[in-house]
Fold each of these.
Amino acid sequence: MIPLKSEKDLAMLRKSGAILAKIMKRLEGFIKAGITTAEIDTLAEKLITEENVVPAFKGYKGFPASICTSVNEEIVHGIPGARILKEGDIISLDLGINYQGYFSDVAITLGLGRINPKMKKLIEVTKRALAEGIKQARPENHLSDISYSIQNYVESNGFSVVRQFVGHGIGVDLHEEPEIPNFGRPHQGPVLKSGMVFAVEPIVNMGIWESVILDNGWTAVTKDGLPSAHFEHTVAITDQGPEILTN
């Protein structure tokens, strides 16, 4: 059962999303070659605390940090640590907050300095795939219309979509029904209704889509060692069309 949000819920989720977008924007300006991923986590937690909200990820099923920092071949759930960012790297930042019991979730991928042109295209295609998916988040469409539009755009540009990790419903819990794959046939699954709120998140690999989980039990990396990119927004379905809450 996909929960529908009330007007009060949506008002609170808008506040949550706006705060998260502000935090991520400030964090984005900090990212540069020479810092460690642990430093990113320290700043993320500081910014979260300053906004009087709670990190959604820290402690979630034992995750040890406030933000996921996934570098180059790391797909998702990168644990911040001693890794030093260098020129030419790409890094995905995935961050969630809890604002008075209402969750929002956002992710971006950044290139550090001058990056390989194909890595730049990977980032651009993943970001655009998110926009293509969000376009389909409107009443009377089917859930898989989001999935299909993402897969179709990504694969038409020569990249692959990760199957193991998917988008999800969000609201009063970080992960709610339904799961939202980034692949599939169109016009399948539940019919979308106003009041649904989703975290739409294309995760795109330069090479093959298969992934491997590292020994830390969290971090997924590409099976072929090629780079991966990740973008995400929290999106409300309304009668007027999709509303991005983390813009």
Amino acid sequence: MWPFTKTVKAAPVPVAAPIASQNERGRAEQLLRRLEWTVLRRLDGLLQGDYRSLLRGAGMDLADLREYQHHDDVRHIDWNVTARHDIPHVRVFTEDREMAAWFLLDLSPSVDFGSGVAPKRETAAAFVAVLARLLTRHGNRVGALLYGFGVDTVLPARASRQHVLQLLHAIEHRPPAQTGATRLQDLLQAAGTLVRRRSTLFVVSDFISEPGWEQALAQLAQRHEVVAVRLFDPMELALPDLGLIPMRDAETGEQLMIDTADAGLRRRYAAIAAARETQLRQALGRAGVDTLELSTADDLAQALLRFTELRKRRSQRLPVHLKAAPA
């Protein structure tokens, strides 16, 4: 196992109030206004109307037929045409821009880690806020399932700016954190039960979890359009030389003193981290989902532009696993 995988100095998660105070609503409003000004305005200029590549609707109209290509969805094979031509053909659809999107948010204690300005939790909140606002501005509905120690919050899919604010408030105000291993499969299985209509699902997680989530993710991808938004911090990939430092596993409570000045330790850490990276990417690939890697050091606007490129490549049936830009 990758050492220090869940190592964080986690602050207790605040208890969610049943009704947000004026001050709490103000914090969510302030965050959203800042993101609208700093990120959404940039995206409006950079996307240049390429909204269709960013978002994929659920409604479909038959537009054409073409020969089957590698990575095509076998469910779209037209068997009558295939039989007549003796060559596999697939249906090509035009998509309705209206869609429902769900954010499956892993807010377990390991996402409180951040070696720089912002922890993974804040990175996730900013990503969700910007993408949810992009969706709701075009009349699309967004919902969310939040996982802390189990799925403890469900927000139904709605289309309004106020709903985005409610979602941000729910992310910020969580029940108290508990020690214990993350079971990401519980979140994915809950989504499979609660989200009935075909939708776009954004699984926002660091994927630090007990095994078993891979099959649940693959099952979701058979029914929905699924994007894995993988959160990570640069320190999880390479350990810097900081001398002797205390580290604590937020999910087990275990504490260790680590001598980061030990070059051999840093090499072993990097090698095991790289092996885990390979295993994780292979698991996501086997599940058949698109992946966007989002670093705590990332520029959010550039990350969403990479996401646009991901959607273009997805429509062309090319492999899609977009890595974070160098910090």
